[in-house]
Design a protein that fits this description.
With about 100 residues, the chain is mainly alpha-helical. It contains 4 helices and 2 strands. It has a domain of about 60 residues. The longest helix is centred in the N-terminal third of the chain and has 22 residues.
Length: about 100
């Protein structure tokens, strides 16, 4: 049955399959968390206060929380994370208890 297919039709089918494969792979990628989404995760996990005993593992906890929410956390590095945390403390959204 496939022997009667024209070359043009076969090329069109191959191109369609290639395009659909690319679309499916793009759909599988997770999106990166924005600063606002990271800040919301920090606020949700801290409850408004943070102390020096939990601050060491806090970066990993937030990464796990965002990953469970469906984000790709490879773009969330420690420098970006701690910049957001210190800004929240400085602006008064989170209290730091030593």
């Amino acid at each position: 049955m496939l022997f009667n297919v024209s070359v043009d039709m076969l090329k069109e089918i191959e191109e369609y399959e290639r395009n659909e494969y690319i679309k499916q792979n793009r759909m599988l990628k997770r999106k990166y968390p924005s600063n606002k989404e990271v800040v919301n995760a920090i606020k949700n996990l801290t409850g408004g206060t943070i102390n020096r005993y939990v601050i060491d593992d806090f970066y990993e906890v937030v990464k796990k929380y965002l990953k469970d929410k469906g984000f790709d956390v490879s773009a969330l590095n420690k420098k970006r994370f701690w910049r957001l945390v210190t800004n929240l403390i400085r602006k008064g959204y989170i209290k730091f208890i030593s």
